[in-house]
Amino acid sequence: MGRRAPYWLALPGWIWLGIFLVVPIAAMASVSLTTGNLIDGFAQTLSVSNYSDAIAKYSTQLVRSLVYGGVATLLMLLLGYPVAYWIAFKGGSRKSMYLFLLLLPFFVSFVLRTISWGFLLADDGILFGTLKGWGLLPADFHVLATTVAVIGGLVYNFLPFMILPIYVALERVDPRVVEAAYDLYASRLDAFRRVVLPLSLPGVFAGVLMTFVPATADPVNAAVLGGTGNTMIGNIIQTEYLVNSNYPTASALSFTLMAVLLIGIFIYARTLGTDNVLEAAAR
């Protein structure tokens, strides 16, 4: 029993994953190869053409989602790393308060926060309406239904998922190591580049994964903040499932998106060097 105890303890988790992850994915894989419609029913025909047809029809939205997700992730990294660095090294005794303030928006629903962002960016809203009234912006100036609004919403909603893992990694950096770099006549930039940044790579790696994947597949921000020219692949999958009842196409698009994201994650991991990341995490 002693040697098998870890396996018994992990068994409930594996059962949960099997029921609520593996089984739905297998069912979706089966549906993606069917043909038919909601009235006549769907038949399993192993129709691989569902994938090629879906990609050919919605390639624009797929590429747009990857671009939006990539740009939003890069902006979150540029904005989030300094915040995480400041909290970790300059937060002092108020670190817990800063982290609480960072997580405070999550006490409100994701959809409501996005709608509130829409009110803020409205043409005659609190911000732009006031600026137009003061004559600081032209009357036809608008942000809603643009790429800027969608990417801005993605950054706003997922930014804490970038900051938190980077903060955890930076929190583990021993200040004495940085002081040793200064003692060896390293400048602040050299100390950051050669000591702090490599040790924070595990947080950067985790933060990019935790933001790029949901940002690319997110249907809410494009629906609330975007226009007809900002539709993302998540909106297409949602429409095919819930509106058109075109389950094979929706399932094929879901698997295509999953495959593209997994390939991108693998390339990212190889480029960054997972061995280096794991070595830094173990220090």
From TrEMBL:
Keywords: Cell membrane, Membrane, Transmembrane, Transmembrane helix, Transport. The chain crosses the membrane at residues 7-29, 66-87, 99-121, 141-170, 191-213, 250-269. It is a multi-pass membrane protein. It comes from the Bacteria. InterPro entries: MetI-like (IPR000515), MetI-like_sf (IPR035906). It is found in: Cell membrane. Pfam families: BPD_transp_1. The keyword Transmembrane applies. PANTHER family: INNER MEMBRANE ABC TRANSPORTER PERMEASE PROTEIN YDCU-RELATED, INNER MEMBRANE ABC TRANSPORTER PERMEASE PROTEIN YDCU-RELATED-RELATED. This is ABC transporter permease. It comes from Acrocarpospora corrugata. The lineage of its organism: Bacteria, Bacillati, Actinomycetota, Actinomycetes, Streptosporangiales.
